[in-house]
From TrEMBL:
Transmembrane segments: 57-78, 106-126, 192-217, 524-543, 716-735
UniProt record similarity statement: Belongs to the glycosyltransferase 2 family. Plant cellulose synthase-like C subfamily.
Protein name, entry field: Glycosyltransferase 2-like domain-containing protein
Recorded GO CC terms: Golgi membrane
Major localization listed first in the record, in broad terms: Golgi
Protein's UniProt keywords contain Transmembrane helix: yes
Purpose of the protein: Probable beta-1,4-glucan synthase rather involved in the synthesis of the xyloglucan backbone than cellulose. Seems to work simultaneously with xyloglucan 6-xylosyltransferase. Xyloglucan is a noncellulosic polysaccharides of plant cell wall and consists of a glucan backbone substituted by xylose, galactose and fucose.
Family annotation (InterPro entries): Glyco_trans_2-like, Nucleotide-diphossugar_trans
Source organism (scientific name): Aegilops tauschii subsp. strangulata
Membrane topology: Multi-pass membrane protein
Length: 740
């Protein structure tokens, strides 16, 4: 029954109930005639709704507290990391000693400028000066001075203030900044980015051609064959079956010198010496030289004891120690080659201190020299015992697999030239002497001797199927120093070798390959455009949107190149995104090293021994390798893993040793305690450090990502965000943390 709302009479009706999705959320609209039971039920539902709200508020407060606690814990971790880094900087840091001082100063200035620009752009954004149509109306242009009328073609995401709005200094400053940005900064950035994009595409084409060459080699089964077998078919290549059908090369045992340069590498000396001494070659046809440059007396004593032990096993091995580390590794090798007895040897095999060759290494490499007098070098491939140790070693494995599987193999097959890797290779001593021997002028003595031998007409062979185990750097600090040496040395060598390359008598196309591809494209252009394009130009374009980089330059082409790099290591496909980001992160180190080597800066001739962890292959692999090894002299155990007393006693009981051999037990007792203590300390986790250049770039990229939000550049934001986080992780030395 309806009635007017101003009536005094109480009216009856039906109550209306509105139910929400939540069963506890109940809103009732009171109507006339509601009895006491309905009111009680409504009061109960209201209490339930109140408790639900309180529960949700409690959860929200807990979430906020959890986030605050996590942020506070992150700040505490960063603070502790900074303190530990300062404590670990007892040795002079490269940045403090001048190597990266100029680079760090540039990055700091760039960071401060980006912070100021972000504040300025944010203020302009809040005042509404950001959105505008692509083409400005004519009445806008008539209000502007003549030199600002080219603002008609500003990109989307900016708006020109009305003339009546321009009444304060901030408005005038913003308009002046727009004019200066378009007339000068955007033009310069566009020219530089265009140049870098051209270099980027040239390098990408070179990489694609290398991959196509490797694919053709795999498809056709092309491999370097033995000269005797290849001559029968008129080809210099041979398949696996052809190698077995060649001449009887089993009696070919020339005199081979095995050199092992090392310096304060007490974590790996024992394993390396053990593997080299077990190489299957007549004992009277080989000599092992342990070339020790250690300045640690304890390390010298341990290495000398290990050499004595194998000498008493019947291995022809000697220990050489230099009082002065002049010339680093090149000086060490040069000193060893000056010995009088070296003239009795025809070939020399070189193994760094962490390399573990298989017993059949010489039998797979030396026969390639027979009947091939033009061959100067046989290079084997590296394989890694710790490639799955942490994320850093996984990413290194991707790079080195591409280097050996693609670059070295393609250059070896089609050009008979590639850069010597410094170890796991066999040189013809005549080729070394004809090329001038080891020189101490750079930190890449391996590349130096390879280039000079190539200019003298010597040919190289790369064996992708012959692998030698070695160790990857497990800490970012060690990897960073290694990469600095590997990228500063080639530029220093390029300056020294360019006149010799021009004057050499090799064909013109070989000169062009050396200068344009080997040095400029792969050693200079790659770090230059990588750092300039992704670490300098890309952040700048966020503050100068008129010079925006295309999406395909930032995302599509780098992803394709990363996939091509990972093809030789297919198990690493899940790490394609971290690999792309990490390579951009390493560009700052490589660029700094390239500049220091090219312009002869203070750190271009700095050699820091890469820190080793002492990883070895599995026990089953070692013993299987040992069982297959024969010796030309008296029967002896193929494997002695260490100097432990229990192992020597068991070995003595098994082989009925005489008194002379039992003297090893006494020697082991003297060295065991010291070696055990050294191994225990070497396994201790090194302190983490702070890398300032990487942190500066991390904050710079994160600021640029924040600026990209103002102009709604989605993909640019995500790339800058992830790249900035990667720089942050690397800068805080978290990349080398163990994941297993």
């Amino acid at each position: 029954m309806a009635s007017s709302w101003w009536g005094d009479k109480e009216e009856h009706g039906t109550p209306v109930v509105v139910k929400m999705d939540n069963p506890y959320s109940l809103v009732e609209i009171d109507g006339p005639g509601m009895d006491s039971s309905e009111k009680a039920r409504r009061s109960k539902n209201a209490k339930q709704f109140k408790w639900v709200l309180l529960l949700r508020a409690h959860r929200a407060v807990g979430c906020v507290a959890w986030l605050a606690g996590g942020f506070w814990g992150l700040l505490g971790a960063v603070n502790r990391r900074v303190r530990r880094s300062r404590d670990a900087d007892a040795e002079p840091d490269a940045e403090a000693s001048g190597r990266g001082r100029h680079m760090l100063g540039f990055l700091r200035a760039f960071l401060l400028l980006s912070l100021a620009m972000l504040a300025f752009e944010t203020a302009a954004y809040l005042k509404g000066w950001h959105y505008f149509p692509r083409d400005l109306p004519e009445h806008y242009l008539r209000q502007l001075p003549e030199h600002l009328q080219n603002l008609r073609h500003l990109p989307d995401g900016l708006r020109m203030p009305e003339q009546q709005e321009i009444q304060g200094w901030l408005h005038r400053a913003y308009v002046a900044w727009l004019a200066f940005r378009i007339d000068y900064i955007a033009w310069a950035i566009e020219k530089l980015s265009g140049f870098c994009i051209v270099l980027f595409m040239v390098q990408s084409i070179d990489r694609i051609l290398l991959c196509l060459g490797c694919f053709w080699i795999k498809l056709r089964g092309i491999k370097p064959g033995l000269k005797a077998a290849a001559n029968k078919r008129g080809s210099k290549y041979a398949d696996d079956d052809d190698l077995e059908d060649g001449d009887d090369l089993g009696a070919y045992f020339p005199m081979v010198l095995l050199q092992m340069p090392m310096c304060n590498e007490k974590e790996v000396y024992e394993t390396s010496i053990s593997h080299v001494c077990q190489i299957d070659w007549p004992r009277d046809r080989m000599l092992v030289q342990v070339l020790d440059d250690s300045d640690d007396e304890t390390c010298q004593m341990l290495i000398r004891a290990e050499v004595t032990k194998w000498n008493q096993r019947g291995v022809n091995i000697i220990y050489r120690h230099r009082l002065s580390r002049t010339g680093y590794k090149a000086g060490n090798l040069k000193s060893a080659m000056s010995c009088e007895y070296v003239k009795d040897y025809e070939f020399v095999a070189i193994f760094d201190a962490d390399f573990q060759p298989n017993p059949d290494f010489l039998k797979l490499t030396v026969p390639h020299f027979k009947g091939n007098p033009e061959l100067g070098l046989v290079q084997a491939r590296w394989s890694f015992v710790n490639k799955d140790e942490n994320l850093l070693t996984r990413l290194q494995n991707i790079n080195l697999c591409f280097h050996f599987e693609v670059e070295q193999q393609v250059n070896g097959i089609y050009l008979n030239f590639f850069g010597f890797n410094g170890t796991a290779g066999v040189w013809r001593i005549e080729a070394l002497e004809d090329s001038g021997g080891w020189m101490e002028r750079t930190t890449v003595e391996d590349m130096d001797i390879a280039v000079r031998a190539h200019l003298q007409g010597w040919k190289f062979i790369y064996l992708n199927d012959v692998k030698v185990l070695c160790e990857l750097p497990e800490s970012y600090q060690a990897y960073r120093k290694q990469q600095h040496r590997w990228h500063s040395g080639p530029m220093q060598l390029f300056r020294l070798c360019l006149p010799a390359i021009i004057k050499s008598k090799i064909p013109l196309w070989k000169k062009a390959n050396l200068v344009m591809l080997f040095f400029l494209l792969r050693k200079l252009i790659l770090p230059f455009y990588s750092f300039t394009l992704f670490c300098v130009i890309l952040p700048l374009t966020m503050f100068v949107p008129e010079a925006e980089l295309p999406i395909w330059v930032i995302c599509y082409v780098p992803m394709i190149m990363s996939v091509l790099n990972i093809l030789p290591a297919p198990k690493s496909f899940p790490f394609v995104i971290p690999y792309l980001l990490f390579e951009n992160t390493m560009s700052v180190t490589k660029f700094n090293a390239m500049v220091s080597g090219l312009f002869q800066l203070g750190s271009s001739y700095e050699w820091v021994v890469t820190k080793k962890a002492g990883r070895t292959s599995s026990e089953s692999d070692i013993f299987a390798m040992a069982e297959e090894t024969d010796t030309a002299t008296r029967p002896a155990p193929r494997l002695v893993r260490g100097v432990s007393e229990a192992g020597l006693e068991a070995w003595a009981k098994t082989h009925q040793l005489d008194n002379k051999d039992l003297q090893l037990k006494a020697q082991a007792e003297e060295v065991t305690s010291l070696a055990a203590a050294i191994k225990k300390t070497s396994k201790a986790k090194p302190p983490n450090r702070i890398f300032k250049k990487e942190l500066a770039l991390a904050f710079l990229l994160l600021i640029a990502a924040t600026r990209s939000l103002l102009s709604a550049q989605g993909l640019h934001f995500y790339f800058l965000l992830f790249q900035g986080v990667t720089f942050l992780v690397v800068g805080l030395d978290l990349i080398g943390e163990q994941v297993s």
